[in-house]
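TASK: fixed-backbone design
INPUT:
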């Protein structure tokens, strides 16, 4: 696939979409390679362990980008890869293969390990309401193509050592432009491989040392071994999206080594100075002071831990959206709790206003499909144009989710749309339009869905409801002593009764 022009119509008007391109360190208008289309590649997880919630921030970001592109009217093709081979314990060719290491430590087949953690990652993707990409590309499915790619660049750009085939980073123009470093300066990395010509040179093919076998190894012109980690993304992005494609994403750490190396490979393969993708976008890190985010540190923060403690995963999604993707975000349980409260508050408004109105209008079953997003070509004909255009302008300016969240909250509030004659239906369609980008399922999620039982809870929801009913009865009979006993009974199970809670919650589990 090359840069073929298709006759897909360009998306309808709205604010121009501007995105921060790490290559130029500037905001740039999004100008698709193929009119009307957006082709995006996101570096996926290395599946030797569970993803931590920091990793998942990278995919909430990629999903927000993808949702925005779809909302802006582009036909999106998104690819996320699964790294099941080749990523060493250090990004710069030092250490062992993370998957081989995990397999050796756990005395398990490397293939089983990769499958187990890929599925765990996919479960997190689903829980966070991250849309499925068009392709999940699995690195080990592309090894023959990686060998072909390496063969094509070997003569002009690589040299062979006993340990493998290495890419000479001085053989391409402007190596390290993305990271703003060169081949020899600006890096604090030590050179772990004997014979490398420049510290930044990296492995294209890693030979299996004599006398050893790896669980994953393939024959190649450079001997039996495994591909270098960076190769897979160059090969799979070109195979599935064609060079050049529109946007390549990853966490900010990839701006330093992995993406500069991909770019060097792409330049070598295309015999040009072209980086392969027009824009390179990076999310900043989720940080946690006590270091629980490092996969190698034993216990670390997984999405399942949040769920086990009683937090709905969409509260974490909201927490991510509250920060701009280019800002560092500090994780704290208090912060997560605040995000959960914010989500509860939104759902409370929706419940009171929307569902009750809906029932009052004689509709027996609530159906969010009644409130479809407002298509772009109808914007000019509706009363809420100004409101929706403000939202459009904010999200189009480098995905400003912290700015659009309060706009969504405002849209739910009566009369804020300026004209009391605006129908409720239209108001909820405005919210639906915004939620296309936010992905919070605002019109289908129910308040009670946010109630997740912590793993160590000693009472289930039915039990709580029946004690609460008995307590209510005792109160009606003015038997307050008995009502208090029921309240204490619940307290002993870690359930706090919340009479008169402004958000309308009747109970809460301590976690
Ligand atoms: P890995 O599985 O280590 O290859 O990482 C998967 C994705 O998560 C990559 O895009 C990383 O850049 C990104 N990432 C790693 N740690 C964090 C973090 N603490 N916060 C945000 N993104 C991260
Ligand atoms: Zn990658």
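OUTPUT:
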């Amino acid at each position: 696939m090359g840069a073929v022009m298709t006759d897909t119509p360009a998306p309808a008007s709205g604010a121009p979409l501007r995105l921060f391109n790490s290559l130029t360190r500037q905001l740039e208008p999004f100008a698709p390679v193929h009119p009307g289309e957006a082709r995006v590649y996101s570096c996926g997880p290395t599946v030797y362990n569970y993803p931590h919630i920091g990793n998942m921030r990278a995919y909430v970001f990629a999903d927000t980008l993808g949702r925005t592109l779809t909302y802006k009217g582009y036909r999106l093709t998104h690819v996320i890869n699964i790294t099941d081979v080749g990523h060493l314990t250090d990004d710069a060719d030092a250490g062992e293969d993370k998957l081989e290491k995990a397999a050796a430590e756990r005395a398990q087949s490397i293939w089983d390990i990769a499958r187990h953690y890929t599925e765990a990652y996919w479960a997190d993707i689903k829980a966070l309401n991250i849309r499925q990409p068009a392709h999940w590309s699995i690195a080990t499915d592309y090894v023959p193509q990686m060998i072909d790619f390496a063969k094509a660049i070997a003569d002009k750009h690589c040299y062979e050592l006993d340990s493998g085939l290495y890419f000479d980073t001085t053989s391409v123009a402007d190596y390290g432009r993305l990271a703003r470093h060169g081949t020899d300066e600006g890096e604090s990395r030590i050179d772990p491989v004997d014979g490398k010509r420049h510290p930044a040179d990296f492995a294209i093919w890693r030979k299996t040392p004599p006398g050893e076998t790896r669980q994953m190894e393939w024959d190649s012109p450079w001997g039996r071994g495994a591909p270098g980690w960076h190769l897979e993304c160059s090969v799979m992005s070109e195979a599935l999206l064609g060079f050049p494609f529109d946007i390549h994403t990853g966490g900010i750490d990839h701006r330093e080594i992995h993406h500069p190396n991909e770019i060097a490979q792409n330049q070598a393969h295309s015999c040009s100075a072209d980086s392969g993708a027009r824009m390179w976008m990076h999310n900043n890190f989720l940080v946690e002071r006590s270091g629980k985010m490092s996969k190698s540190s034993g216990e670390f923060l997984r999405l399942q831990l949040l769920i086990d403690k009683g937090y709905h995963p969409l509260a974490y999604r909201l927490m991510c959206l509250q920060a701009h993707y280019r800002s560092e975000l500090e994780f704290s349980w208090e912060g997560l709790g605040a995000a959960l409260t914010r989500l509860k508050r939104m759902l409370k408004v929706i419940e009171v206003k929307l569902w009750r109105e809906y029932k009052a209008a004689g509709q027996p079953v609530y159906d969010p499909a009644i409130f479809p997003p407002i298509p772009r070509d109808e914007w000019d004909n509706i009363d809420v144009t100004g409101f929706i255009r403000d939202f459009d302008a904010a999200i189009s300016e480098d995905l400003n989710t912290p700015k659009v969240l309060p706009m969504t909250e405002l849209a739910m509030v009566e009369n804020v749309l300026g004209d009391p004659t605006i129908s409720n239906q239209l108001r909820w369609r405005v919210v639906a339009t915004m939620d296309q980008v936010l992905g919070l399922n605002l019109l289908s999620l129910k308040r009670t869905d946010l109630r997740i039982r912590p793993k160590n809870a000693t009472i289930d929801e039915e039990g709580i409801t029946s004690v609460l009913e008995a307590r209510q009865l005792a109160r009606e009979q003015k038997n307050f002593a008995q009502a208090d006993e029921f309240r204490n009974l619940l307290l002993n199970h870690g359930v706090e009764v919340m009479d008169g809670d402004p958000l309308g919650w009747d109970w809460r589990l301590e976690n």
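COMMENT: Residues 324 and 425 are 31 Å apart (CA to CA).
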